[in-house]
Amino acid sequence: MAGCTATKKNDSKEPAIATLGSEPISTSEFQYVYEKNNAGNEDAYTRESVTDYLKLYTNFKLKVKEAESRGLDTTMAFKRELEGYKEQLAQPYLSEKSVTDQLVKQAYDRLGQEVNASHILLTLQPEAAPEDTLAAYNKAMEIRQRALSGEDFGKLAQTYSQDPSAADNKGNLGYFTSMQMVYPFEDAAYKTPAGQVSMPVRTRFGYHLIKVHDKRQARGEVKVAHIMVRATPGMPKADSLAAKQRIDAIYKRLQRNENWDKLAAEFSEDANSAQNGGELPWFGTGRMIPNFEDAAFALNKEGEVAKPLLTPYGWHIIKLIDKRGLPPFEDMEQNLRNKIAKDSRSELNRTAFLKRVKAENNFTEVAAAKTAAFGKANAELLQGKWNYDTNDKTLSQTLFTIQGKPYTVADFYAFAKEQQRPRATGTPEYAMQTLYDAFVDKSLVDYEKANLENKYTDYRMLVKEYHDGILLFQLMDEKVWSKAVEDSVGLKAYFEQNKEKYKWGPRAQATVISAANKDLLNKAQQQLSVRRYPVKSANLPDVLFEQNKAELTKDATLKLNEFAEILKNNPTLSLDVNGHADAREAAAKDNIANLRTQRIVKYLTDEGVPASQLKTNALGKTKQAGPDNTETGRRRNRRASFTLYSSDVSALADNLNASNPLDVQITEKKFQKGENKVLDSVKWEKGTYTLQQNGREYLIIIDEVLEPAYKELNETRGLVISDYQNYLEQQWVNQLREKYPVNVNQAELDKLVKK
């Protein structure tokens, strides 16, 4: 009971470890949070640890209190968000953990075994009337007796089973394992000995009779790749023959050790896997067509390829990638829990949960009221059109109570009216009973959810954490996070007042070149001074022109717009514009190739590209029109081509690393002491240095040694914003402590320290 009062405010009689204004923080609340965040720490419950954490916690609670005083906890957005979290947090408390644990262990144990079985299905709606259910059960028992008397189960399945596939497969399901069938079916199959026929088993599909043929140890999982050629049953004979010839031809090429991935990409008609070497996800028994599975599991060596295999989808060539057994329980446990939560097994958990909740909360029915309420059922209920008289005096009668709380006939009727739906079978009385059962279950679950905070300390404290956390996030964003980013004037003022915190230590403007050998180092050094390196990764398309013309086409301007954006966004780049002409173009007053380059440069500069980033080359006329001397070939010579250059040394490194990406590394920047070990190993004076280290050749060029200096705001903006946020938060906390004075109960704190 003491724990239940942890979240109360002024009316709490529990000792408080601190008060914020007039609001107490109970010792139990603080101790719960402290232990959750400090359990296992070596300094837990020392005076320093408890005192420091209490200061942090009171700061946190001050912010929450301010948010509440502003009404942020009364908004619809806040309530919606909190209710969503509460719904998620409640789920573990609305189930029977012991039942789930048993089901998880059972599922894992069964995964080690596979069952081969056939079945006969007599379909039945989940909400069928009792008389229909009994008729189906008796029919199943009759068929079972015939099977036990020696009649062939497969023929009985063909005759009586309402599973559409039974006509072809005689009810045979092949091998399957746990989690592949609905739980009641799986449970019966695993419990029935090989060679025996089960009693009728009820699932949501109806009644099943199961004959178990065999049980074997699970084969685990296999990973394969396949090449598929489509061939479907009933296709023309000529097409079927062509598919067989095609798969045989592919198989012969594989036998000649041709590359599997290339053949899969070129010939496989499984579009989902062809470009990935035909690779399929891991699978176990019951996941694929049986003969495909058997062929896959029959492969033993990695890379082994099976002969072409025909399935209803077509011809397959299968290659083994890997095999594995059942993973350890610890590796599968969480995945099994997630599956069971969505599986038909969850009904067992729900049934056990409702049974416990009924007992714990003294669920009591009033039989007379229930009988009277059911008497109002009529044929309209089967049509989904049932209604009731709102003036009926019996509406106030109690149907049942949960922990003394009454649930009336009116409550039930309102639920029934909303939840009713048309039913093809059954009686009105049975439909009313089904709705009543659903109403009872919902009422029990709702009652339990409403009382979780009183019943479970962990849940109550979790909800409180989410409640406070949502409020804190809203106010922190307003007061600290966004403000620090958006308040540019305040940020700059803070930076100017605290410039001593943001200083550069000793720095060197230097270039460090690391090369795999001396030849590469010499090449790098020779080209370093050029400061204009071709960007080989750039593949800029040509701009084409009409004969004897320099006007830019629409297609040309689209390309040039892209070039302009590239150049404007990176001042280290420059562009060579190379003009070309066809030998047949007439001579003009101005060279046509030159005119074209000028037109392009003007367009780019008009788009905002600095002229310093552009260079022109009029390469003149080209005698060779093209390999076929066609108009298309000649037009390719009426063009402008482009070469992109960069002054960044990274482009030089890329060019030198054409054969090996690790041949040369070049870094050019302002280095701080301690940032680069190689640079730190030479004397920090202007000059050039060479050395060997760790099998690499190094060239170090120090252009300037810089004395310690203040940083500019743009050089350390991220750190300044972080510090400014801390400053704003501390200022805000100080204001809150003035508004809501914090008083610590030293006696209660001492008790925790002694603990």
Question: What does it look like?
Answer:
- The chain is α+β, with helices and mostly antiparallel strands.
- The protein is 46% helix and 20% strand.
- Strands 15, 16, 17, 18 and 19 form a five-stranded mixed β-sheet that branches. A four-stranded antiparallel β-sheet has the order 4-3-6-5.
- A hairpin with a 2-residue loop joins strand 1 and strand 2.
- Helix 19 packs across helix 27 and helix 21 packs antiparallel against helix 25.
- The longest helix is centred in the middle third of the chain and has 30 residues.
- It is extended, with a radius of gyration of 40 Å.
Describe how the helices and strands are arranged.
Elements: E1 16-20, E2 23-26, H1 27-38, H2 47-69, H3 76-90, H4 97-110, E3 113-123, H5 130-148, H6 153-160, H7 166-169, E4 172-176, H8 183-191, E5 201-203, E6 206-217, E7 221-230, H9 237-255, H10 260-267, H11 290-298, E8 309-311, E9 314-324, H12 329-342, H13 346-360, E10 364-365, H14 367-374, H15 380-383, E11 398-402, E12 405-408, H16 409-419, H17 428-450, H18 452-455, H19 457-486, H20 488-497, E13 503-504, E14 507-515, H21 518-528, E15 533-534, E16 543-544, H22 554-568, E17 573-582, H23 592-606, E18 614-622, H24 631-635, E19 639-646, H25 649-656, E20 664-672, H26 677-680, E21 687-693, E22 696-706, E23 709-710, H27 717-739, E24 742-744, H28 746-754
Helix pairs in contact: 2-19, 3-19, 4-12, 16-17, 19-27, 21-25, 22-23
